[in-house]
Design brief:
The two termini are about 25 Å apart. Helix content is about 50%, strand content about 15%. By secondary structure, the chain is of the alpha+beta class.
Length: about 200
C-alpha cells in the first residue's frame, strides 16, 4: 500500500525526513511500533485521550520498504510540558528499543531522529505563549534537551507498557485507545466535545 503525501507530511504539510536504516523490515517495523507506542503511552499517562495509534508500512518500489506511523490524540487542557514530553517520547522509545534488543549503533540511533515531533512541540507550545528552544533555554522556557530528559524518565518508568503496546501494534497494525488502555491498565480519559 502506498501512502499519500498527506500521510507522509509533518504538521506544516512539508514531507517528513526519511532515513535509510540498516535493519531488516521486521526490525524497522517493530522500531516504528515502539516509536508510536512511546507517543501513545505517554499521552495516555499524561491524561490525553488516545483515538488510535498505528504503524504503517509499504513498498515504494519493488524490493524496498518503508515504515512510518501515527498516533491520534486529543490534548485539550494538557500542561504544555507534558505535551512536549509526549512529542519527545517516540524517538526515545525507538532508541531504547534498539538498545534493549541489541540493535543499537550510532547510525541506527541517528535514524530514529524525529525532527517533525520536536517542531510540532515548538509550534504548539508557541501558540500558547510557552517558549521551547531547539538548542538553548529561552527566557521563561525550556530547551528540547530538558524536555527529552523529562520524557526519558517517563519512558523508563513506563517501559513495560510501551513494550506491551509496541508488540501488540506490530502484530495488529492499529490499536485503538480502548485497546491500549486494556493492554496497559492506564486510564483513557473521555473525548472532549463528542464521540470518538
Amino acid at each position: 500500500m502506498a501512502l499519500t503525501a498527506e500521510a507522509l507530511a509533518d504538521h506544516t504539510g512539508r514531507p517528513r525526513a526519511t532515513f535509510d536504516v540498516p535493519l531488516t523490515y521486521d526490525q524497522a517495523r517493530l522500531g516504528m511500533a515502539f516509536h508510536e507506542a512511546g507517543h501513545a503511552v505517554l499521552s495516555m499517562a499524561y491524561g490525553m485521550h488516545i483515538i488510535a495509534s498505528e504503524v504503517m508500512s509499504w513498498e515504494p518500489e519493488p524490493g524496498f520498504w518503508a515504515v512510518t506511523g501515527k498516533t491520534g490524540h486529543q490534548a485539550q487542557d494538557t500542561p504544555p510540558w507534558h505535551f512536549a514530553a509526549e512529542c519527545a517520547a517516540g524517538e526515545l522509545a525507538n532508541v531504547q528499543y534498539l538498545l534493549t534488543y541489541g540493535l543499537w549503533t550510532p547510525e541506527r540511533a541517528a535514524a530514529c531522529s524525529a525532527v517533525h515531533d520536536r517542531e510540532l512541540a515548538i509550534d504548539v507550545l508557541a501558540r500558547f505563549g510557552v517558549r521551547l528552544g531547539r538548542d538553548h533555554v529561552p527566557p521563561g522556557g525550556k530547551s528540547w534537551g530538558m524536555v527529552r530528559g523529562m520524557a526519558r524518565r517517563k519512558v523508563a518508568r513506563l517501559w513495560w507498557e510501551i513494550r506491551t503496546v509496541a508488540h501488540a501494534m506490530d502484530e495488529r497494525t492499529v490499536l485503538t485507545g480502548d485497546e491500549i488502555a486494556a493492554l496497559t491498565g492506564l486510564v483513557k480519559p473521555p473525548f472532549q466535545g463528542g464521540a470518538a
